[in-house]
Amino acid sequence: MTLDFAKEKVFWTRKMNLKLVKFMERKPNIWNPKHPKYTSVEHRDQTYAEFASKYGNEFTGQAVKDRWTNIRSTFANHLRKLKASQAKGDGKVCKITWHLWDACRFLLTVNKNSLTNGDTSRTTNNDSPKEDDSMPK
To answer: Lower Cβ count inside 10 Å, N or C end of the chain?
Structure first.
């Protein structure tokens, strides 16, 4: 007999993903290792459950945690590709078109692979450069 341990199926729209990122930006205990409650699993679980309770019955704390982990991993992968293209030095910097790139830029403040210069205007999915005071210089 085979046991099914499938994860919950929750449909995440772009809008819900953006809401999750904006919510997490206000919750540094989830993403900032210097936050005093960063290591508290209980406090993290409460934060995930708080988002889940705000947005309906189909969202659970575990579903929110899984999605946030996926978003952070995707951000880190795009950042790694961007840094690799900058390191080539051929003047061709990859263009990030991921819809959550701009919203996740707050993670640059704690990401160990963060950009060394503050110019990410070529990496956004907007045509015009974007000024962002939170970017490291």
So the answer is: N
Q: Which residue blocks in the chain are alpha helix, DSSP H?
A: 14-25, 28-31, 41-54, 61-88
User: Taking the C-alpha atoms of 11, 16, 22 and 24 in order, what is their torsion angle to the nearest 10 degrees?
Assistant: -20
For the chain, domain boundaries:
14-123
Contact yes or no for 108/83 (Cβ under 8 A): no
Amino acid residing at 1: M
Give pLDDT tens digits for 77-102: 999 998 888 887 777 778 889 999 99
Sequence length of the chain is 137
State if pTM tops 0.70.
yes
- What is the distance between the alpha carbons of residues 82 and 117, in angstroms, rounded to a whole number? 12
